Amino acid sequence: KMKQLDACRSDYQDHLKGVGNFLFRLQMSYQKSNTSTSIETFTTEFSHQSRRLMNGFDECQHYEMIQQQKITQKLDEISFEKRKILLEDQNT
After folding, report:
1. Contact 9, 61 (CB under 8 A)
2. Residue 87 lies in domain
3. pTM, two decimal places
4. What is the per-residue burial (b if ≥16 Cβ within 10 Å, else e) of 33-66?
5. Number of domains forming the structure of the chain
């Protein structure tokens, strides 16, 4: 699941960078016209939304990592208990 999240995050990041670069070039080409302000506003909003989306991916990855750690810890505890029971059985 982590690999899927990583791949998806990477794809989104590349796509968002491409769109961001396009918007920046668009903003530069219209800088001297009246549409400059609206494009700048749109570009800023796009930047905020992109950042929010990438933060969402980071939170998902962090949550997934914590879940994996919990599962690993639980499996270690079960394994330890199993070894303990086997040793007790051998000693009796």
Report:
1. yes
2. 2-91
3. 0.52
4. eeeeeebeeebeebeeebeeeeeebeeebeeeee
5. 1
The pLDDT value recorded for residue 40 is 76
At residue 88, does pLDDT exceed 70? yes
12, 53 Cβ separation under 8 angstroms:
yes
Q: Encoding tokens for residue 67?
A: 């879940």
Q: What is the pLDDT of residues 43-64, one digit of tens each?
A: 788 888 888 888 888 888 888 8
Alpha-carbon gap, residue 30 to 15, rounded angstroms: 23
Measured CA to CA, the distance from residue 37 to residue 27 in angstroms comes to 9
